[in-house]
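Problem 3 from the worked examples.
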Amino acid sequence: MLDFEPRDVALPQGHFIDGKLAQGGQALDVMRPSDSKLLGAIPDATAELVDEAVNNAQQAWQDSGWGHRPPRERGRILRRWADLLDANAGELARLEAVGSTRPIRDALAHEVPFTAECIRFFAECADKFGGDAVPTRRDSLGLILTEPYGVVGAIAPWNFPLSMASWKCGPALAAGNAIVLKPSELTPFSTVRFAQLAVEAGVPAGVFNVVQGRGAVAGAALVRHPLARKISFTGSTLTGASIMSDAAHHGMKPVTLELGGKSPQLVYDDAGDLDALADRIVRGFTSNAGQACVSGSRLIAQRGIAEPLIEKVAAIVAQLRPGLTWREATRYAPLISERQAMKVDGAVRDSLAGGAQAYCGGGFFEHDLGGYFYRPTILTGVGSDMLAVREEIFGPVLTVQVFDDEEQGLALADHPTYGLAASVHTRDLGRAMRATRRLAAGTVWVNRFGRTGDFIIPTGGFKGSGIGKDLGRQAFEANLRYKSVLIDF
């Protein structure tokens, strides 16, 4: 039985600096998404406290020699960290469930194991990539040396707090950097325990610091800090653009940005089993109540399959019911906050006013839980200029557009702003490969939707969906800088 009571969960409340919890800044209330009740509070970091955390990380990085330790030693420490994450899976899952939109069953079965395996993957990268000897003249030797940046500043989102933190901390630490992480102020607690376990595993105190607070103050101060030599951010396209500008104006530092998406699910009429296909479509736009940057929120269906497919999708989502994230039976997540709920509902209302039709959904569940649970919504009759098609909603809303031929389908699938992910459903391999080549997206899935545990496959977007990659060797190498050396004999 996975059920638990929120009052029984011990919250690590505070910043985490130099290996211990720290206070500093006015108290900022944190609410439980499931019932909108007070969960706890965190200190809202000032720019001065962020300065302290980054300076502490720089000093700890220098004093510990973390960046100069043998790569396999760093790898061993990270593997111990992953083992501790597994050993404390129950505690971490409860922290994740009580404070985020992740139901306890999903947190235990997916979030914590995924986080641990991500750390293991990057632990193995530590001594596998970096540096080279290159051909030059006969009487000289060319070397490409790699070295860590120093302090990496990371800003993680609220939708998958633990796993998104692992995407940033794993490669940075494996490459020999120190890291200062700012989790979302909406989901701050599980990442502090994540950092505590890193230090327990042997990461030197101060090499992994966590600062709490709002993005406009703490996040901005981290990005602008002169000792934060690289920035990694996951979040909205608008915020990503601001971070890119700040990074350019405060030290010309590199950035990795995984930003918004408006992912198409392109379905041809030869896609096969309708029941399996409908299940894929549903998971693509209702997982975490649509609060995922890769959410498959645009169904582009060929005319011959569109109507029966929509019927099956609607029948599946009609079975979904809201529930508290600390109950094992819960399968459908709440929206993170009232603000997010109003954004989702506003986008749907705007599109309905513009002529779209709600095939199903369009509004909140009636319940007495207290949180914001939005009914899975299918919008038909939409145009490409409607807000629900044009902008990332970050909610369980699926727009439907119908096409007749291959060229028309590809044109509808291509989005003018976003290019994070896309999926193609067809049994024709040639058609699948033509679509894969044409779609301007950083990830294309064929006959599936969603990531797997194959951490070797990088993720990242084109266009307004970001620059750089998380996961894969590309993420590890992005945490190293390259130095060219030419030696004459």
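Problem 4, a separate protein:
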Amino acid sequence: MKVLVDTCVWSLALRRKNRTALSANEQRMVASLTQAIQDGRVAMIGPIRQEVLSGIKNSAQFEKLRSALEAFPDEPLTTLHYEEAARLFNLCRGHGVECGPVDILICAVAARQHWTILTSDQGLKRCMDVLKTEKLIP
């Protein structure tokens, strides 16, 4: 099964200078990403790529990171993905959980493609909990 990797996990793996300072949970996230890469199961969408590449001050570092991410082509997003994101947003809100636009789009893509999500983001995890309860994402 493909894995849609959230920005926070990519940042842990690619943007942190001192990997030895990662917590045990962060190390597990990086190990999961590494395994998914080795297995050819990593999926990417444009909004995640944009978030990962945003905020890099050094142009050489930006190019290095952009180049590293080229190995992961973007899943094409359609109107159906955005409509599903809106529907899932409304569902989560109905359960008292607020989701950011990229987070709920990640959920919508995962739901439509039957992919898992790899994240350490607590806000995204709250959205995922609602959607798992509703059996909308794996």
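Solution to problem 4. The radius of gyration is 15 Å. The longest helix spans residues 24-39.
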